[in-house]
Amino acid sequence: MKKTVVAAALGECVHVAGVSNFLRLAEQAGWKTVFLGPAVSIEKVIEAAKREKADLVGISYRLTPETGERLLGEFTEAADELRTNGVRFVFGGTPPLAEKANKIGFFELVFEGGEPDDQVLAFLKGESKGINASIEYPRNTIERINWKAPYPLLRHHFGLPTMEATLSGIETIADAKVLDVISLGIDQDAQENFFHPERQDPRQKGAGGVPVRSKEDYLALYQASRKGNFPLMRTYSGTDDFIKLAELYTETIHNAWCAIPLYWFNKMDGRGPWDLEGSIREHQKVMQWYGEHDIPVELNESHHWGMRDASDVICVVSAYLAAYNARAFGVKDYIAQLMFNSPPGLSDAMDLAKMAAMLQMIEPLRSPDFRIYKQTRTGLLSYPLDPSAARAHLATSIYLQMALKPDIIHIVGYTEADHAATAEDVIESSTIARRAIENAMRGAPDMLSDPKVKNRINWLLHEAQITLNTIRFLSANSSIDPLIDPHVLAQSVITGIMDAPQLKNNPYASGTISTRIINGSCKSVSKTGKAISEQLRIEAVLKKREE
């Protein structure tokens, strides 16, 4: 049976925006809501609470604090019997009056404006007794996604060039309660050479993130996050010694989920010691290890192609291959990463179509044993240098992402084009993101219903199947599924079926594809710059291979 909440603006106050928002959130949390309107007398509120058998009564007053204080005194006296009988009360008002209301001690929760919707929703779901009260925050990813729904988890990258600065920053971020997940940014030596001190370069210490060099370092970083809203922590899966790192991360920072590519982080992109085929095989082993330990896995694959100006079709194909391999190697909870603005020139409509096509491609893979969660993010290379413009870009990008109803939003700080985010930058970017999310949650237009977006989705799905079928035909071994065969997957790059313009002169990739932004989408083009179908592009690739 639904609980009932009765709410009104008290006395002569006619400001009901806060009351309306509170009741909207109550409906999301499953309450029956009764709105009495503006300027309601104390007697009518009490009468309605009795008539409706209210479980919760919310009142607001946003006029003169002195008048409001007198009114609250009269109200609490009149409502004392209801409170004694178990009815709960909340109040919303201006900060000066909110302070006075808190001192009265009658109200379970007092709003002064600006409280995040997701925290108010947690209260209404019964997960907390108040905004500042102790909350039992879930300690693993899937539980936290379900706990916070319908709002997405918020994740942000953070790692400064020294342990001291990173430890202090993590504590500041946790205390701010703005993030659900801190993605620990570690330097390149930690990713590649953690277990090989002899290979580490002291001159590169702190390059790209925090220089963790021991198990104790990881334990200290995790301990720094055990306050505030107890954010989950995760980090890169590394570029060598993958399983040893996985065991270390699980033991120390309780890695929220694994993030690893399929084709990347090897000699092809200069980020690891492995050759292409060998790294694919190693990445598959990592997926299997995390799957066996019931830890979610994200394949941060498709955006690496997009960041190198690959066509939208190639990006969609890579998203499918990533999910397909994750399922094949025992991943149970799969996080599909969707990086918008890659390449940066995409229009919002075509960018959204591209991401929706990725999700439609992988949806048939979903099963009780392979659950899919959506994670969106803003493009790393898309931020303008001007900080005001960058803030605007962050907000508009996240508003667009909300069209996909993500389970996780990876916030890319607005300072990305200028410097690695400080704790203060992380908090500000997260606050901007929260507002964009709240605006979208209150009723954004259905951008996926645009006929141009639908047509683009269908076209991408059709073209992607052509590419996938071509990869399947590369296999000479009928006993191995070609879409998970490391040799076949490597050959798909070597032959140029999977290709990107920025892979030119690469020791593994072809780099012969040409792409161009046409009508807001990234398409393969001929030597004359004219858009060509995937069929024509692949025919040219295979013909060159035969020569």
The helix-and-strand class reads alpha/beta
Stretches where pLDDT falls below 50 for ≥5 residues? none
Tell me about the largest β-sheet.
8 strands, parallel
CATH architecture group name of the largest domain: Alpha-Beta Barrel
User: How many distinct beta strands?
Assistant: 15
User: What's the total helix number?
Assistant: 19
**What name goes with the CATH superfamily of the largest domain?**
Methylmalonyl-CoA mutase
Count of separate structural domains: 3
**Rg value:** 27 Å
* Spatial strand arrangement across the major sheet: 8-7-6-13-12-11-10-9
Shape: elongated
Strand fraction equals 5-15%
Fraction of residues in H or I helices: 40-55%
Query: What is the CATH topology assignment of the largest domain?
Result: TIM Barrel
Mean pLDDT: 93
CATH class of the largest domain: Alpha Beta
Distance from first to last alpha carbon: 73 Å
